[in-house]
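Q: what does this look like with adenosine-5'-diphosphate bound?
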Amino acid sequence: MSLQSHFNTSGHAIVVRELVKTFGERRALDGISLEVRQGELFCLLGPNGGGKSTLFRVLATLLLPDSGTAEVAGHDVIAAAAEVRSRLGVVFQSPSLDGKLTILENLRCGGALYGLRGAVLESRITEATKALNLTDRLNDLVETLSGGLQRRAEIAKCLLIRPDVLLLDEPSTGLDPGARLDLWAALEQLRSEHGVTALCTTHLMEEAARADRVGIVSAGKLVALGTPEELTSAIGGDVISLGVSKETGADQLAATITAKTGIPATVVEGEVRIEHAEAYALASRLAGEFPKEITSLRIARPTLEDVFIARTGRLFADQDVETNDTAGKPAAKKKKR
Ligand code: ADP
Ligand code: MG
C-alpha cells in the first residue's frame, strides 16, 4: 500500500528557486534554492534564526516570499496554493492535538476538517495509525501519552489526506532523546514502507545525520547540500582541536602552525582547529613541537557541525548572534559571546 496518491512529473517533491523573504532589514531567506526528491527524507538543518521556519511557512503556503519560486508536488505555492495544501501534510512546531480527546477522536475530528467522512475516513484512520504503529493506542487520551506517541499521532492525522509530501517543523522539539529516536524511526518507516517524502527542519546535528540528504542553512542561505556522508567526507580527514595557553593565544598559534606546516589552521571559539587526512600523525607532531603552547588536544571524526564550521567559519550555537536587526526573536534564544 502506498500512502502517496500523486506523483509530479519532475521527480521532485519540492523545488525551491532563489527564494527571498525579508522582515524589515533582515533577510530571513536570502536566495535559497534546493530540491527534495520523491521518497526522500530531507532535513533542513540550521541554527535558531537560520530561516528554517520561514522556508517551511512559504512551502506550507502560509507566507508569501518577496521573490523566487517554490513548487510542492508539481504545484506553485503561490499560483496553486489550494492544490499545494491538498497534497501537503503539515506538522507544526507546537502540538495541535486535543489532549482531552483520544487519538481516535482527534483523528476523526481532524479527518472531518479535511472533508473526509464515513467509511473512507475510518479506513484512512486505520491506514494512518497502522503506518505509525498506533493501532493499540487509539482509545488512549492524548494527554496521557508520551511526547513521542503524541508526535506520532499528529503525523497520523496529517497522513489522513494521503499527502504527497510531509512538512515537519522541528518535530522533535520538547522530546527526550528516546522519543526522538522513536519519531525518527517512524519517519524512516513511512519513507521506506510507504514512499512518503518528508522535509523536516531541525537544529539538531544528530537528527540531520540520519536523513537521506541534508541542506544546511545559515542566515537565510543554503551553505551545504548533500547526504550526511558526502558532507562530512568533504571535510577531507579528521578534525584536530587544540586548546592554547593564555600566554600564546589561539590566533598566534594558528598563524605559527600554518606558517611552519603550510596546513590551514583556523580559530573557532578560542581553540585552534585543523582538518587533516592524517590527523593522528599531525597531532603528535604538533604536541611535540608546541608542548607549552598546547594545553589540550582532541581528534574527532568530522560531524555535520564541522561541515557547518567549515562552510561558515562559525560555531553552530553562535549563529543566532547576527549583526542585522534581530527584532522579533526572543532574547533568550540569543547566545552572547
Ligand atoms: P529558524 O526557524 O531557523 O529558527 P526563522 O525562519 O524563524 O528561523 O527566522 C529567520 C529570521 O527571520 C530570524 O532572524 C527571525 O527573527 C526573522 N523572522 C521570522 N519571522 C519573522 C516575523 N514574522 N517578523 C520579523 N522577523 C521574523
Ligand atoms: Mg523555526
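The radius of gyration is 23 Å. The first strand starts at residue 12 and ends at 23.
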